[in-house]
Protein backbone atom coordinates (compact mmCIF):
# COMPACT_ATOMS: atom_id res chain seq x y z
CA UNK A 1 0.00 0.00 0.00
CA UNK A 2 1.11 3.57 -0.59
CA UNK A 3 2.54 5.18 2.54
CA UNK A 4 1.72 8.64 3.87
CA UNK A 5 4.19 9.85 6.48
CA UNK A 6 3.14 12.49 8.99
CA UNK A 7 6.10 14.55 10.13
CA UNK A 8 6.16 17.31 12.73
CA UNK A 9 7.40 18.34 16.13
CA UNK A 10 5.49 17.22 19.24
CA UNK A 11 2.17 18.86 20.09
CA UNK A 12 1.43 20.21 16.62
CA UNK A 13 -1.47 17.78 16.37
CA UNK A 14 -0.05 14.89 14.38
CA UNK A 15 -1.99 12.27 16.30
CA UNK A 16 -5.22 14.21 15.98
CA UNK A 17 -4.64 14.48 12.25
CA UNK A 18 -3.90 10.76 11.99
CA UNK A 19 -7.17 10.10 13.82
CA UNK A 20 -8.92 12.33 11.30
CA UNK A 21 -7.37 10.34 8.48
CA UNK A 22 -8.53 7.11 10.04
CA UNK A 23 -12.03 8.49 10.56
CA UNK A 24 -12.33 7.13 14.06
CA UNK A 25 -10.71 7.45 17.42
CA UNK A 26 -7.82 5.08 16.93
CA UNK A 27 -5.52 4.10 19.71
CA UNK A 28 -3.05 6.82 18.93
CA UNK A 29 -1.38 8.14 22.03
CA UNK A 30 -1.10 11.80 22.77
CA UNK A 31 1.89 13.75 21.62
CA UNK A 32 3.85 14.09 24.79
CA UNK A 33 7.30 15.58 24.41
CA UNK A 34 9.94 13.13 25.48
CA UNK A 35 7.79 10.06 25.13
CA UNK A 36 9.36 7.51 22.84
CA UNK A 37 6.86 6.13 20.44
CA UNK A 38 7.17 3.66 17.62
CA UNK A 39 6.48 4.52 14.03
CA UNK A 40 3.19 2.70 13.98
CA UNK A 41 1.53 2.20 10.59
CA UNK A 42 -2.25 2.59 10.43
CA UNK A 43 -4.49 1.41 7.62
CA UNK A 44 -6.67 4.16 6.21
CA UNK A 45 -9.35 4.32 3.54
CA UNK A 46 -10.51 7.41 1.66
CA UNK A 47 -12.59 7.58 -1.52
CA UNK A 48 -12.20 3.85 -2.00
CA UNK A 49 -8.41 3.99 -1.83
CA UNK A 50 -6.47 2.12 0.83
CA UNK A 51 -3.24 3.52 2.15
CA UNK A 52 -1.01 3.40 5.19
CA UNK A 53 -0.52 6.34 7.50
CA UNK A 54 2.65 6.45 9.53
CA UNK A 55 3.06 8.88 12.37
CA UNK A 56 6.82 9.24 12.37
CA UNK A 57 6.91 10.13 16.08
CA UNK A 58 9.55 8.24 17.96
CA UNK A 59 11.49 10.74 19.96
CA UNK A 60 14.70 10.82 21.83
CA UNK A 61 14.89 14.57 22.25
CA UNK A 62 17.10 14.45 25.33
CA UNK A 63 19.84 12.57 23.58
CA UNK A 64 19.90 14.45 20.31
CA UNK A 65 17.95 17.66 20.56
CA UNK A 66 14.65 18.38 18.93
CA UNK A 67 15.96 19.80 15.65
CA UNK A 68 18.24 16.82 14.99
CA UNK A 69 15.48 14.46 15.91
CA UNK A 70 12.97 15.96 13.49
CA UNK A 71 15.59 16.08 10.75
CA UNK A 72 16.04 12.34 11.18
CA UNK A 73 12.28 11.88 11.12
CA UNK A 74 12.12 13.75 7.83
CA UNK A 75 15.00 11.74 6.34
CA UNK A 76 13.24 8.56 7.32
CA UNK A 77 10.00 9.74 5.72
CA UNK A 78 11.84 10.61 2.50
CA UNK A 79 13.22 7.08 2.31
CA UNK A 80 10.01 5.26 3.02
CA UNK A 81 6.94 7.30 2.13
CA UNK A 82 5.04 8.07 -1.07
CA UNK A 83 3.65 11.33 0.28
CA UNK A 84 4.94 13.37 3.21
CA UNK A 85 2.73 15.63 5.28
CA UNK A 86 4.62 18.17 7.38
CA UNK A 87 2.41 19.45 10.16
CA UNK A 88 3.11 22.86 11.69
CA UNK A 89 1.17 24.53 14.50
CA UNK A 90 -0.03 27.73 12.84
CA UNK A 91 -1.16 29.18 16.16
CA UNK A 92 2.41 28.97 17.47
CA UNK A 93 4.07 29.90 14.19
CA UNK A 94 7.34 28.72 12.69
CA UNK A 95 9.87 27.40 15.20
CA UNK A 96 13.51 26.38 14.87
CA UNK A 97 12.38 22.76 14.84
CA UNK A 98 9.94 23.33 11.98
CA UNK A 99 12.73 25.02 10.06
CA UNK A 100 14.98 22.02 10.62
CA UNK A 101 12.32 19.74 9.17
CA UNK A 102 11.70 22.07 6.22
CA UNK A 103 15.41 22.29 5.43
CA UNK A 104 15.50 18.52 4.99
CA UNK A 105 12.20 18.28 3.15
CA UNK A 106 13.05 20.99 0.64
CA UNK A 107 15.41 18.43 -0.90
CA UNK A 108 12.67 15.80 -1.01
CA UNK A 109 11.74 14.21 -4.29
CA UNK A 110 8.72 12.67 -2.61
CA UNK A 111 5.73 15.06 -2.70
CA UNK A 112 5.56 17.16 0.48
CA UNK A 113 2.33 18.74 1.63
CA UNK A 114 2.70 21.52 4.18
CA UNK A 115 -0.15 21.59 6.68
CA UNK A 116 -0.95 24.58 8.86
CA UNK A 117 -2.82 22.99 11.75
CA UNK A 118 -4.97 24.60 14.42
CA UNK A 119 -6.51 26.99 11.92
CA UNK A 120 -9.91 26.66 13.55
CA UNK A 121 -11.61 29.51 11.71
CA UNK A 122 -11.19 32.23 9.09
CA UNK A 123 -9.24 34.40 11.51
CA UNK A 124 -6.56 31.76 11.80
CA UNK A 125 -5.81 31.94 8.07
CA UNK A 126 -3.43 34.86 8.54
CA UNK A 127 -1.32 32.67 10.83
CA UNK A 128 -1.13 30.06 8.11
CA UNK A 129 0.30 32.55 5.62
CA UNK A 130 3.45 32.85 7.73
CA UNK A 131 4.28 29.25 6.82
CA UNK A 132 5.14 30.24 3.25
CA UNK A 133 8.52 31.14 4.72
CA UNK A 134 9.33 27.43 5.08
CA UNK A 135 9.90 27.25 1.34
CA UNK A 136 7.61 24.28 0.87
CA UNK A 137 4.94 25.96 -1.18
CA UNK A 138 1.42 26.86 -0.16
CA UNK A 139 0.46 25.92 3.39
CA UNK A 140 -2.76 23.98 3.55
CA UNK A 141 -4.89 25.10 6.51
CA UNK A 142 -6.79 22.59 8.61
CA UNK A 143 -8.16 22.12 12.03
CA UNK A 144 -7.39 18.51 12.83
CA UNK A 145 -9.40 18.82 16.02
CA UNK A 146 -12.59 20.16 14.44
CA UNK A 147 -12.12 18.55 11.05
CA UNK A 148 -11.98 21.84 9.17
CA UNK A 149 -10.32 21.23 5.78
CA UNK A 150 -9.35 17.65 6.57
CA UNK A 151 -11.43 16.12 3.77
CA UNK A 152 -9.84 18.42 1.22
CA UNK A 153 -6.44 17.59 2.65
CA UNK A 154 -7.12 13.88 2.17
CA UNK A 155 -8.11 14.56 -1.44
CA UNK A 156 -4.84 16.38 -1.95
CA UNK A 157 -2.86 13.59 -0.31
CA UNK A 158 -4.46 10.98 -2.56
CA UNK A 159 -3.90 13.11 -5.64
CA UNK A 160 -0.24 13.51 -4.80
CA UNK A 161 0.14 9.77 -4.38
CA UNK A 162 1.72 7.89 -7.27
CA UNK A 163 -0.54 5.50 -9.17
CA UNK A 164 1.56 2.56 -8.08
CA UNK A 165 3.32 2.33 -4.75
CA UNK A 166 6.91 3.47 -4.63
CA UNK A 167 8.65 1.68 -7.43
CA UNK A 168 11.68 -0.39 -6.60
CA UNK A 169 14.13 0.45 -9.36
CA UNK A 170 15.39 -2.63 -11.14
CA UNK A 171 18.48 -3.61 -9.27
CA UNK A 172 21.54 -4.46 -11.33
CA UNK A 173 21.34 -6.07 -14.73
CA UNK A 174 22.09 -4.33 -17.99
CA UNK A 175 19.70 -1.59 -19.15
CA UNK A 176 17.15 -2.83 -21.70
CA UNK A 177 17.21 -1.29 -25.17
CA UNK A 178 14.80 -1.78 -28.07
CA UNK A 179 16.21 -1.26 -31.54
CA UNK A 180 13.29 -0.36 -33.77
CA UNK A 181 12.56 1.18 -37.14
CA UNK A 182 10.85 0.40 -40.40
CA UNK A 183 12.25 -2.37 -42.67
CA UNK A 184 15.61 -1.76 -44.36
CA UNK A 185 16.80 1.11 -42.19
CA UNK A 186 19.65 -1.14 -41.05
CA UNK A 187 18.51 -2.70 -37.78
CA UNK A 188 19.98 -6.13 -38.58
CA UNK A 189 23.22 -4.61 -39.79
CA UNK A 190 23.55 -2.58 -36.62
CA UNK A 191 22.77 -5.42 -34.23
CA UNK A 192 25.21 -7.65 -36.09
CA UNK A 193 27.91 -5.02 -35.81
CA UNK A 194 27.22 -4.48 -32.13
CA UNK A 195 27.15 -8.20 -31.40
CA UNK A 196 30.44 -8.72 -33.19
CA UNK A 197 32.19 -6.95 -30.35
CA UNK A 198 30.56 -9.30 -27.88
CA UNK A 199 29.27 -12.63 -29.02
CA UNK A 200 27.29 -13.37 -25.89
CA UNK A 201 23.58 -13.70 -26.24
CA UNK A 202 20.91 -14.47 -23.71
CA UNK A 203 18.78 -17.55 -24.03
CA UNK A 204 15.11 -17.27 -23.33
CA UNK A 205 15.21 -20.74 -21.81
CA UNK A 206 18.65 -21.81 -20.68
CA UNK A 207 19.90 -25.07 -22.15
CA UNK A 208 17.29 -25.36 -24.87
CA UNK A 209 17.57 -24.84 -28.57
CA UNK A 210 15.02 -22.05 -28.54
CA UNK A 211 16.15 -18.92 -30.38
CA UNK A 212 18.08 -16.52 -28.20
CA UNK A 213 15.77 -13.57 -27.75
CA UNK A 214 18.00 -10.78 -26.51
CA UNK A 215 21.55 -9.70 -27.30
CA UNK A 216 24.02 -8.58 -24.66
CA UNK A 217 26.24 -5.89 -26.08
CA UNK A 218 29.13 -3.92 -24.60
CA UNK A 219 29.05 -0.25 -25.53
CA UNK A 220 30.85 2.63 -23.87
CA UNK A 221 32.27 0.32 -21.24
CA UNK A 222 28.88 -0.93 -20.17
CA UNK A 223 26.71 -3.89 -20.96
CA UNK A 224 23.36 -3.30 -22.60
CA UNK A 225 20.60 -5.76 -23.24
CA UNK A 226 19.11 -5.29 -26.70
CA UNK A 227 15.71 -6.93 -26.37
CA UNK A 228 13.93 -9.12 -28.86
CA UNK A 229 16.69 -9.20 -31.44
CA UNK A 230 16.32 -12.85 -32.51
CA UNK A 231 14.76 -11.95 -35.83
CA UNK A 232 17.27 -9.18 -36.42
CA UNK A 233 20.35 -11.30 -35.93
CA UNK A 234 19.27 -14.03 -38.30
CA UNK A 235 17.24 -11.83 -40.60
CA UNK A 236 14.31 -14.20 -41.07
CA UNK A 237 12.26 -13.48 -44.16
CA UNK A 238 10.95 -10.02 -43.24
CA UNK A 239 9.49 -9.90 -46.71
CA UNK A 240 6.77 -12.33 -45.72
CA UNK A 241 6.00 -10.44 -42.52
CA UNK A 242 3.17 -8.00 -42.97
CA UNK A 243 3.45 -4.54 -41.58
CA UNK A 244 0.89 -5.53 -39.00
CA UNK A 245 3.16 -8.21 -37.53
CA UNK A 246 6.18 -5.97 -37.74
CA UNK A 247 4.27 -3.38 -35.75
CA UNK A 248 3.27 -5.92 -33.08
CA UNK A 249 6.86 -7.03 -32.81
CA UNK A 250 8.01 -3.44 -32.47
CA UNK A 251 5.43 -2.86 -29.78
CA UNK A 252 6.58 -5.92 -27.82
CA UNK A 253 10.21 -4.82 -28.02
CA UNK A 254 9.37 -1.31 -26.84
CA UNK A 255 7.29 -2.69 -23.97
CA UNK A 256 10.18 -4.85 -22.83
CA UNK A 257 12.69 -2.00 -22.98
CA UNK A 258 13.49 1.07 -20.93
CA UNK A 259 14.88 3.04 -23.84
CA UNK A 260 14.23 2.72 -27.58
CA UNK A 261 16.61 3.55 -30.39
CA UNK A 262 14.53 4.51 -33.41
CA UNK A 263 16.68 3.92 -36.44
CA UNK A 264 16.04 6.16 -39.46
CA UNK A 265 17.76 5.92 -42.83
CA UNK A 266 19.59 9.18 -43.46
CA UNK A 267 19.47 8.61 -47.23
CA UNK A 268 15.69 8.50 -47.33
CA UNK A 269 12.89 10.93 -46.57
CA UNK A 270 11.48 10.70 -43.05
CA UNK A 271 8.27 8.81 -43.69
CA UNK A 272 4.87 8.19 -42.16
CA UNK A 273 6.05 4.78 -41.10
CA UNK A 274 9.05 6.30 -39.28
CA UNK A 275 6.66 8.67 -37.51
CA UNK A 276 4.46 5.77 -36.43
CA UNK A 277 7.38 4.00 -34.77
CA UNK A 278 8.34 7.22 -32.95
CA UNK A 279 4.74 7.60 -31.78
CA UNK A 280 4.76 4.04 -30.47
CA UNK A 281 7.77 4.83 -28.30
CA UNK A 282 6.24 8.05 -26.95
CA UNK A 283 2.92 6.40 -26.20
CA UNK A 284 4.65 3.57 -24.37
CA UNK A 285 6.42 6.21 -22.27
CA UNK A 286 9.93 5.01 -23.01
CA UNK A 287 13.12 7.05 -23.32
CA UNK A 288 13.97 7.79 -26.94
CA UNK A 289 17.14 8.05 -28.99
CA UNK A 290 16.94 8.87 -32.69
CA UNK A 291 19.78 7.35 -34.71
CA UNK A 292 20.31 8.33 -38.34
CA UNK A 293 21.89 5.33 -40.01
CA UNK A 294 23.68 5.08 -43.37
CA UNK A 295 25.41 8.39 -42.64
CA UNK A 296 28.28 7.15 -44.86
CA UNK A 297 26.07 7.64 -47.92
CA UNK A 298 25.34 11.31 -47.29
CA UNK A 299 26.49 14.00 -49.68
CA UNK A 300 26.19 17.70 -49.01
CA UNK A 301 22.87 18.13 -50.78
CA UNK A 302 21.17 15.31 -49.00
CA UNK A 303 22.64 16.51 -45.72
CA UNK A 304 21.12 19.97 -46.16
CA UNK A 305 17.82 18.47 -47.19
CA UNK A 306 17.81 16.15 -44.18
CA UNK A 307 18.36 19.10 -41.82
CA UNK A 308 15.24 20.70 -43.26
CA UNK A 309 13.28 17.48 -42.88
CA UNK A 310 14.39 17.21 -39.27
CA UNK A 311 13.23 20.77 -38.53
CA UNK A 312 9.90 20.12 -40.15
CA UNK A 313 9.10 16.52 -39.29
CA UNK A 314 10.81 15.98 -35.96
CA UNK A 315 9.82 19.27 -34.32
CA UNK A 316 7.54 17.42 -31.90
CA UNK A 317 10.52 15.51 -30.51
CA UNK A 318 13.09 18.27 -30.29
CA UNK A 319 13.82 16.89 -26.84
CA UNK A 320 15.01 13.55 -28.22
CA UNK A 321 18.67 12.67 -28.25
CA UNK A 322 20.03 12.41 -31.85
CA UNK A 323 23.07 10.57 -33.16
CA UNK A 324 24.43 9.93 -36.65
CA UNK A 325 25.86 6.52 -37.34
CA UNK A 326 26.84 4.02 -39.98
CA UNK A 327 26.27 0.34 -39.31
CA UNK A 328 28.57 -0.40 -42.24
CA UNK A 329 31.62 1.69 -41.32
CA UNK A 330 30.99 1.77 -37.58
CA UNK A 331 31.00 5.54 -37.50
CA UNK A 332 29.29 7.05 -34.45
CA UNK A 333 28.30 3.67 -33.06
CA UNK A 334 30.39 4.21 -29.94
CA UNK A 335 28.60 7.47 -29.25
CA UNK A 336 25.34 5.57 -28.96
CA UNK A 337 26.09 4.66 -25.34
CA UNK A 338 26.26 8.31 -24.25
CA UNK A 339 22.94 9.03 -25.91
CA UNK A 340 21.35 6.03 -24.23
CA UNK A 341 22.66 7.20 -20.86
CA UNK A 342 21.42 10.75 -21.35
CA UNK A 343 17.98 9.57 -22.36
CA UNK A 344 17.73 7.17 -19.40
CA UNK A 345 18.87 9.88 -16.99
CA UNK A 346 16.12 12.21 -18.22
CA UNK A 347 13.61 9.40 -18.01
CA UNK A 348 14.45 8.83 -14.35
CA UNK A 349 14.71 12.45 -13.25
CA UNK A 350 12.77 13.39 -10.15
CA UNK A 351 12.50 17.07 -9.35
CA UNK A 352 12.25 17.93 -5.65
CA UNK A 353 8.72 19.12 -4.90
CA UNK A 354 9.83 22.37 -3.29
CA UNK A 355 12.03 23.26 -6.25
CA UNK A 356 9.22 22.40 -8.64
CA UNK A 357 6.72 24.61 -6.83
CA UNK A 358 9.12 27.52 -6.42
CA UNK A 359 9.70 27.41 -10.16
CA UNK A 360 6.02 27.09 -11.09
CA UNK A 361 4.98 29.84 -8.69
CA UNK A 362 7.38 32.31 -10.31
CA UNK A 363 6.35 31.17 -13.78
CA UNK A 364 2.63 31.52 -13.10
CA UNK A 365 3.15 34.95 -11.59
CA UNK A 366 4.85 36.07 -14.78
CA UNK A 367 2.48 34.31 -17.17
CA UNK A 368 -0.79 33.39 -15.46
CA UNK A 369 -3.23 30.99 -17.09
CA UNK A 370 -5.63 32.83 -19.42
CA UNK A 371 -9.05 33.65 -17.98
CA UNK A 372 -12.08 31.84 -19.29
CA UNK A 373 -15.51 33.33 -18.79
CA UNK A 374 -14.06 36.14 -16.74
CA UNK A 375 -12.42 33.86 -14.17
CA UNK A 376 -8.73 33.01 -14.33
CA UNK A 377 -7.86 29.60 -12.90
CA UNK A 378 -5.28 29.61 -10.11
CA UNK A 379 -2.51 27.04 -10.02
CA UNK A 380 -2.09 25.89 -6.44
CA UNK A 381 0.42 23.09 -6.42
CA UNK A 382 2.43 20.86 -8.68
CA UNK A 383 3.74 17.44 -7.90
CA UNK A 384 5.80 14.98 -9.86
CA UNK A 385 3.66 11.89 -9.48
CA UNK A 386 5.96 9.51 -11.28
CA UNK A 387 9.24 8.84 -13.06
CA UNK A 388 10.16 6.58 -15.99
CA UNK A 389 8.86 8.75 -17.61
CA UNK A 390 8.36 11.89 -15.50
CA UNK A 391 4.67 12.68 -14.93
CA UNK A 392 3.46 15.91 -13.38
CA UNK A 393 0.12 16.72 -11.85
CA UNK A 394 -0.90 20.36 -11.69
CA UNK A 395 -3.58 21.25 -9.17
CA UNK A 396 -5.60 24.17 -10.38
CA UNK A 397 -8.85 25.89 -9.38
CA UNK A 398 -10.06 25.61 -12.95
CA UNK A 399 -9.54 24.02 -16.34
CA UNK A 400 -6.24 24.81 -18.07
CA UNK A 401 -6.29 25.10 -21.84
CA UNK A 402 -4.15 22.80 -23.97
CA UNK A 403 -2.04 25.75 -25.08
CA UNK A 404 -1.22 26.63 -21.49
CA UNK A 405 -0.46 23.00 -20.63
CA UNK A 406 1.99 22.87 -23.54
CA UNK A 407 3.50 26.11 -22.27
CA UNK A 408 4.01 24.50 -18.84
CA UNK A 409 5.57 21.43 -20.42
CA UNK A 410 7.95 23.54 -22.49
CA UNK A 411 9.00 25.58 -19.46
CA UNK A 412 9.49 22.45 -17.35
CA UNK A 413 11.79 21.12 -20.04
CA UNK A 414 13.70 24.39 -20.30
CA UNK A 415 14.22 24.44 -16.56
CA UNK A 416 14.87 20.79 -15.73
CA UNK A 417 16.08 19.23 -18.98
CA UNK A 418 14.41 15.86 -19.47
CA UNK A 419 16.56 15.22 -22.53
CA UNK A 420 15.51 12.12 -24.38
CA UNK A 421 12.31 11.43 -22.50
CA UNK A 422 8.64 12.12 -23.05
CA UNK A 423 7.04 13.88 -20.07
CA UNK A 424 3.41 14.14 -19.12
CA UNK A 425 1.61 17.10 -17.60
CA UNK A 426 -1.93 16.55 -16.41
CA UNK A 427 -4.29 18.84 -14.54
CA UNK A 428 -6.56 18.16 -11.60
CA UNK A 429 -9.19 20.73 -10.88
CA UNK A 430 -9.84 21.55 -7.21
CA UNK A 431 -12.10 24.37 -6.19
P1 LIG B 1 16.60 -3.90 -41.33
O1 LIG B 1 15.47 -4.32 -42.15
O2 LIG B 1 16.27 -2.63 -40.59
O3 LIG B 1 17.14 -4.93 -40.43
O4 LIG B 1 17.78 -3.43 -42.34
P2 LIG B 1 19.09 -4.24 -42.82
O5 LIG B 1 20.09 -4.28 -41.69
O6 LIG B 1 18.70 -5.51 -43.43
O7 LIG B 1 19.68 -3.23 -43.89
C1 LIG B 1 18.99 -2.90 -45.07
C2 LIG B 1 20.01 -2.55 -46.16
O8 LIG B 1 20.72 -1.36 -45.81
C3 LIG B 1 21.06 -3.62 -46.36
O9 LIG B 1 21.31 -3.73 -47.72
C4 LIG B 1 22.30 -3.06 -45.62
O10 LIG B 1 23.48 -3.52 -46.17
C5 LIG B 1 22.13 -1.59 -45.82
N1 LIG B 1 22.72 -0.81 -44.72
C6 LIG B 1 22.50 -0.96 -43.40
N2 LIG B 1 23.20 -0.05 -42.69
C7 LIG B 1 23.90 0.69 -43.56
C8 LIG B 1 24.81 1.80 -43.42
O11 LIG B 1 25.15 2.31 -42.35
N3 LIG B 1 25.34 2.33 -44.58
C9 LIG B 1 25.02 1.80 -45.78
N4 LIG B 1 25.56 2.37 -46.84
N5 LIG B 1 24.16 0.78 -45.96
C10 LIG B 1 23.60 0.22 -44.86
TrEMBL record:
KW Nucleotide-binding (keyword) present = yes
Which positions fall inside the EngA-type G domain?
2-165, 175-348
Residues engaged in binding GTP 2 = 181-188, 228-232, 293-296
What keywords does the record list, in alphabetical order?
GTP-binding, Nucleotide-binding, Repeat, Ribosome biogenesis
Q: Name one GO molecular function term.
A: GTP binding
Which Gene3D superfamilies does this chain map to? 3.30.300.20, P-loop containing nucleotide triphosphate hydrolases
Could you mention a single GO BP entry for this protein?
Answer: ribosome biogenesis
Mind telling me which Pfam families this protein's record contains? KH_dom-like, MMR_HSR1
Annotated GTP 1 binding sites: 8-15, 55-59, 117-120
Tell me where the transmembrane regions lie.
none
Family assignment? Belongs to the TRAFAC class TrmE-Era-EngA-EngB-Septin-like GTPase superfamily. EngA (Der) GTPase family.
Q: Which HAMAP family match?
A: GTPase_Der
The UniProt function text for this chain reads: GTPase that plays an essential role in the late steps of ribosome biogenesis.
Q: How does it assemble?
A: Associates with the 50S ribosomal subunit.
This chain belongs to the protein called GTPase Der
Q: Which organism is it from?
A: Modestobacter caceresii
